[in-house]
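A student in our group prepared the protein record below, which I am reviewing. Thanks in advance; the entry in question is below.
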Amino acid sequence: MIAAIGTLLVGFALTVDYPRRAGAFWSDAATYYTMAHSLAFDGDLRFERADVERVFQEFRNGPSGIFLKKGRELDLTLTTQIPFLVSVGPLTQDLYFAKAFIYSLAAAPFVRLFGTNGMLLLHALLLTAVLTAGYFFLAAKNANGVALAFTLTFFFASVAPAYFVWLTPELFNLCLVFLGAFFWLYKERAEDPPWPLSGLTSDLIAAAIWGTVTYSKPNNIFLIVPFLVLLMWRRQWMRTIRVGAVFSLFLGGLFLATLFTAGDMNYQGGERKTFSGTYPYQRSDLTFENTGLSKRTDVIYTHQPWDIVLHDIYLFHIGRFSGMAIYFFPAAAALIMFLLSRNKALDQWLVFGVATFGGLLLVTWSPTNYFGGSGTLGNRYFMNLFPLYFFLLGAISRPLLPLFASWAAASLFVTSILAGPFEAGRRPGEHATTGAFKWLPPELSLINDLPTNSDPRKFRQKFDEGYLGYFLDNNSWGRERRSPGGLGFHVRGGSTAEMVVRTNVELTQIVVRVTNVAGKPNHVRVCVPGGCEARDIAPGDKEIIELPAGKPFPYEDFGHRSYCYLVTIETETGAVPLLQGRAQKDWRYLGAFVHIEPKPYPGL
C-alpha cells in the first residue's frame, strides 16, 4: 500500500505542470524556488540577473515575495551574545537569499534533473520514507493492519499533505523531524532492530538529522533535549557526548556555512528586504536600495501579557485558522490515547514534554504570529511538532474509535483543502470562511496575520468612526460608501457576516445602523460581545441598534494594547439590484447596509 502511494506521489510530482497549476508564488516559495534553481544551475547562493530571468521563464509575476539581504565582508570577532562569532565587515553589493538554504540544497540535485518538478519529487521521496518508517515503528507493537491504518490516518487525515505542493520547507522539516525521531526511538520499540536502527549508529544519525532541521527551523533546537536526557538517565555519558557533538557539528556547520557565504550567520538578519512587483536586476535602474520593503527580524516581540497568553493556549488548540485539534486532529487523538494508556515509557514522557513545550514556546515566543502569518494553512509552524505526536503511540488496543474520529474531523475541516491544494495555497484563508469553521473562535490575538488578510479588502480597513475593520468571511464586500448611509459595508442576503472592530480604547457601547436593501421585509440580527438584538425592518428603512460593547479581546504588540470586538450581522433575505431595474448595475445579492459607530470615539 505504501509503495503504491509512493508511486502515485512520484508520478504526480513528475507530471504536474507546476507553474500553470500554481499560477504564482505564495508564502515564502519565491525565495526557496529561486535559491534551489541558483544552487542547481549556478552552484551558489547569490541572487543575480540570471536568477531573475529563470523565474520569469515560468512565473509571469517574477519572484514575488522573495527575501534578499546584502552580503558582508568577513571580519570575524567574538562577542558575549548569541551567536558569539560575528562578522563586523562592511556590507557588499552582492545579494544573497535571506532564508535557510538546506531545503533548497536538498532539492537542488532533483531540480537539476527535473526542473521545478524536482522539488515535488523530493517531497514524494521524503513522504514515502516517512510512511514506511511510521509503519515499521507501529508494527513493532501492533498488528500490521493497525500499523498501516494508523500511519496513513496520522498523515492523510491532517492538513499536512496540502503542503506537498508548497515550495517551502514545511513538509521537508516535518519529514526530517519524523525521521530523526524514528532513528532515535525505533530501537525502544523493536525487539531486535537491524543496523543502522540500533545502537550508537542510530543515535548519531538521529542527531545529524535533528541538527540539520534545527538549522532550517531554530525552534527545533529543543528536540535534542529529551534525547540527551534519556541517555544521561541511563548513565551513558560517552554516548551522550557523542550525540551532542554530532548534533552541534551539523547545526554549527550549517550556520558557519551561512556565515562564510554571506558574511552573516543569521540568514534573517542584517540588511534584509522582501520584494514584490519589482526586483533588483530586473532592469538596470532597479537595485536593492530603490526596491523592496525592509524586513529585518533582529527585534521580535515576545513580551506578551499572561492574560493574552492564556487565551492563545486555548486558541492554539481549537482556533479557526490554526487550531491543532482542527487541522492536525490525529495529533490530538494520539495525545489522548497516550494520556489514557496505562503503560507509559520514559521516552514517551520525554517526547510528550518536548512537544508540549514546543507548543508553549510558539505561543509565548511568537505571540502575534505563532502559526506562520497570513500565508499558512493551519499552523505551519506546528508542522515541526506534529510528527512528535506519532511517537506517543504504543500498543493500540482499541483502534476503531481514534481512526473514525480522525477521519470524521478530517471530513469536516481539511477535505476542502486537500481536494484543491493549489487553490488553498493561493487563498489560504478561503476554506475558513464557511461551514463548520464558523463554529470556531477566530484567533483575534493574531488579527494582523490572519490568512483572510491576504485579501486587502478585508484587512485593516479604516473607517471614519475611528476604528479598523477586519472582515472574516465572504458575506460582505469590505468598506464602501453608500448614499444615503455613509461609509459602511454591505452584508450578503440570507447570510451571517463576521467582522472585527478594533479600537485604541475600550468601548462602552456599539451602535449599529442597519439599512434594509433587500427590497422586501428583512429580519436582521446583530451580535457584539455585549449581547444580541434582532429587528424586523421594512424595505428601505433604517434601524439604529444600540448594544453594550461587552468584554473585548485584547491585542498587544510591542507594548501597545488595542481592543477587538467581534461583530456579526445576520440577514434573512436579500435582492440583486441588477434584477430590479434597468438603471441598476450591481450584481451582488444584498441584504443590508451596515454603519457601525463605536462609543466613545476611539480614534485610529
Remarks:
- The longest strand covers residues 560-571.
